[in-house]
Amino acid sequence: MDTALGPLILARHHLERGRPDLALEALDGVTSGEVETLEFWRLRADTLLRLRLWAEARDAARSGLDRGPNDVHLLEVLALACSGLGKKKEALTAIEAALGLQPDDPGLHAQKAFLLTRHAQNAIGFASYRRARAAAEHALELDPDFVPAHAARLQVAVAAGERRAPKLATRLLELAPESEQAHLLAGVALTNRGRVSAGVRHYTEAARLDPPDPEAARFLRGSKTLAHPVASVLRLFWRLGPLAVLLTIFVLVVGSLILYLTTGIELPIAILGICFIPFFWYLFFVGNIARGNHSRRP
């Protein structure tokens, strides 16, 4: 594109092409007068957010808000940047301020659901998704066909382990069949319910739609490992679910100990030790796949 069009137009063009790195370079060429415009700070905040430079994006959003305190878009960027920094309270304060200005915007309610899902755990590790679910459902009430609202609702379902997550994934894919994020979320939802092969297909499609995305590649690698014939015991654990697996292990431990103490036979203890190998692999996959795709924006 012709550089004579100006750095702001260039930056917007690069962002639309999915090249925030080039957009940031273009913004370095703005004039002193353009630096004082709200458009510059919007573009800079968006660019830094795309690059996951959370602190810089937060500072850019704040600089823009100094010039336009009621700019809803900058408040939304500020919320996401603070979330990226792990600042839950500041993130929710910013998104609530945006909702105060536009209470009927389904996109803002979807972002609120995303933030509440991402920061669901409290100080002692307990996670509650009630508020996140309510925010996503309110977004759907405002616009039943709004794709980000369906994505936010599916994120809540995946994080909370809802049985209806695959059904929600089907609806999201009906609305956005070419969305990389929709396929990624669908893959997580299906894999969490033990449908590993179906999950792999969606991870593969997500990787095809957005090849540079590292998360799609990571989920695909993990699920392919889980789908390997050697991991059949692991898939059995997966289908049973964490609670059933833990109860099974508990019964095996108690039974083996009783048998050893009453008979002195060591074989059950050895067998139990071997059984723990796939169990620990199961815990590894739960930590890396089953917790879902919590970090992505709807």
Walkthrough of the structure:
- Helices cover 75% and strands 0% of the residues.
- With 298 residues, it is mainly alpha-helical.
- α11 packs antiparallel against α12, α15 crosses α17 and α16 runs antiparallel to α17.
- It starts with 6 loop residues before the first helix and ends in an 8-residue tail after the last helix.
Give the topology, please:
Layout: H1 7-16, H2 20-27, H3 32-35, H4 38-50, H5 54-67, H6 72-84, H7 88-101, H8 106-118, H9 130-142, H10 147-160, H11 165-175, H12 180-192, H13 196-209, H14 214-227, H15 232-240, H16 242-263, H17 267-290
Instruction: Report the sheet with the most strands, covering strand number, pairing sense and barrel closure.
Output: none
Low-confidence stretches: 286-298
Extended strand count: 0
Q: Output the CATH class name of the largest domain.
A: Mainly Alpha
Query: Architecture of the largest domain, CATH level 2?
Result: Alpha Horseshoe
* Total individual domains: 2
Q: What is the CATH topology assignment of the largest domain? A: Serine Threonine Protein Phosphatase 5, Tetratricopeptide repeat
Strand content: under 5%
CATH superfamily of the largest domain: Tetratricopeptide repeat domain
Q: Strand pairing plus helix content: what structural class?
A: mainly alpha
Q: Note the overall shape.
A: elongated
Order of helices and strands: HHHHHHHHHHHHHHHHH
Distance between the termini: 30 Å
